[in-house]
Amino acid sequence: MCGIVGYVGKKEASPVLINGLSKLEYRGYDSAGVAIIENNKLKISKCKGRLANLEAKLQQEPIHGAVGIGHTRWATHGEPSDLNSHPHSNEDETISVVHNGIIENYLHLREWLTSKGYKFMSETDTEVIPHLVDYYYQGNLEDAVMKAISKMDGSYALGVVSTHEPGKLVAVRKDSPLIVGVGKDEFFIASDIPAILNYTRDVYLLNDKEFVVITQDGIKLLTEEGDIINKDIFHVTWNADAAEKGGYEHFMIKEIHEQPKAIRDTMTSRIALEKPITLDKISLTKEQLENIDKVYIVACGTAYHAGVVGKYAIEQLARIPVEVDIASEFRYRNPIINEKTLMIVVSQSGETADTLAALREAKKHGARVIAVTNVVGSSASREAHDVLYTWAGPEIAVASTKAYTTQLIAMYIMALYFAEQKGTLSSERIEEIKKEMLQLPEKAEETLKHKDVLQRFASKTYMHKDMFFLGRGVDYAVAMEGSLKLKEISYIHSEAYAAGELKHGTIALIENGTVVIALATQDNLFEKMVSNIKEVKTRGANVLAFAFEGNNDIEKTVDSALYIPKTETVLAPVLSVIPLQLLAYYMAVQKGCDVDKPRNLAKSVTVE
Ligand code: M6R
After folding, report:
1. How far is CA 601 from CA 304, 370, 587, in A?
2. Less crowded by CB within 10 Å, the N or C end of the chain?
3. Which of 346, 605, 607 best tests ligand 1's pocket when mutated (most atoms within 8 Å of CB)?
4. Is residue 394 part of a domain?
5. What is the DSSP letter of 473?
């Protein structure tokens, strides 16, 4: 969480920092600030609230200077307030720091620094850093930062500037993302690529504990021992427009509409008729797969929900037992992992702290790890043994949509690859499923046309306080995702239930007018699902059902129905989730919620 930026160049730093922060607000948006060196003095402007507040403040009281750092915050230690906003500085304001991450031993450091006479102004963990740098400063900023981080436990991406060396910016990362942008006579640091794309496409991707020292003359990459690192520049090929709204009112609705393309891009070169499936550079032979006794899929939030579908797909198609785990639970439950374990971590950002911790835990115990991620060069992509990218393009809205559908595609590709290698499906059956997969982009396009039913339903029900999502099989997995989407952006409480489980307690909550969204795409479970719908209808529920085209009989049982194009039942989630995403979106719009930046959330959760 939190976004950091930094600039050293010839331009005014202030607009560059603000522009960068505007692309990072998805990482946190409860306060923002900048520190710029103006005439060898540190000038700091920071305030609670959205970036727009900081912009207004800077318009009133501009700061001029060509070296600076900026921050947009998602509060962890200390409430969102002017005082807790970054940048944080030492007492005489000669050193200023922006930080993304958590300093786990900050209380101990705070005590120690207090005993040395340092005074603290905020409740943040970050404030120990400028004081530590101050304590160790002996004429060289990078040396002082190196000594400071040697005392810090936890995660960090840091940008540090100081009036002692006014033309210099020092940055370092550990377990929080950080990239370095290289322009013509100007250099940048940022938590993510979109923040610098208006200025350059050439970046260095820093690894843990790698430092960058930036001055007007150029940049130096250093190890924590101070040795020079030679690294290749990574050239960003995607366009800055991909991270803009492109005429849509919100990023979320734009990204929902990008799904047909994202699905197609994720299949390209991996799935083709009458050709073996390829997993990019990943190779898992029949022998290797037969040696695997368990697959773990580990992820958080929406990515976890994609993993649940992955379990159904891999077990059904490749007959390998799969356990799906929430990453924050996985690492602390002492899971059984060994060389016979295959772990698949799923993460849009590739930076989610819990998912990375699970990945490391699995590697430590000898498992082979495949990362399914959307961000090239992300920590997950670099730390896993193998990577399968989802080609969704940048996802900006906090609510994940196109990342989810492309994660599903990645799951199906892996399941089919495993099935092909192990021979659990006939080649004819594999061809049938591939054929259906290749039609998904067009069918997703078709599904996107059903907006009016959903808008009507949203306009009648958006004032409800609770809703239920029901399904069986993979429909249940999609119900979980639909429920999460609704909660996170419209703040309507909702629960997803395996339809058959409802009667074991939760059905007590169904009363006259309770809204129930029922998914009924699974042919073998259709009749059972209809019975479950009847159970809630009898108790007064207002039911909107999603079924495959042709299953119009469902209208006899429900209040409203929406039909999605027929496909293989195991692939249904790719299509059935689209109306759920749209429904959540229209509910949130009706309620006047901030769709792209829902309260209390951040796009990238880099703290445990
Ligand atoms: O970047 P990741 O896929 O690892 O993120 C995981 C979750 O934080 C994320 O999916 C979250 O649940 C989304 N806000 C849901 O829309």
Report:
1. 17, 27, 18
2. C
3. 605
4. yes
5. T
Give the end of a domain, one of 418, 438, 458. Answer: 438
The answer to whether residue 603 is catalytic is: yes
Ligand 1, atom 12, residue with closest C-alpha: 301
Query: Which one of 438, 468, 501 terminates a domain?
Result: 438
Q: Which tens digit of pLDDT belongs to each residue from 538-558?
A: 999 999 999 999 999 899 999
- Pocket-forming residues, ligand 1, beta carbon under 6 Å: 300-303, 347-349, 352, 355, 398-400, 484, 488, 604-605
Please state, in angstroms and rounded to a whole number, the distance separating the CA atoms of residues 242 and 255: 10
Tally Cβ neighbours within 10 Å of residue 332. Answer: 11
Atom nearest to 398 CA in ligand 1? 14
> What is the per-residue pLDDT across 66-122, written as a single tens digit (0 to 9) for each?
999 999 988 778 888 899 999 999 999 999 999 998 898 999 999 999 999 999 999
Residue 40 dihedral angles phi and psi, to the nearest 5°: 60, 15
Q: The whole model's pTM is what?
A: 0.76
Domain that holds residue 390: 245-438
Site to substitute for ligand 1 among 1, 302, 600, most atoms within 8 A of C-beta: 302
Co-location of 161 and 221 in the same domain? yes
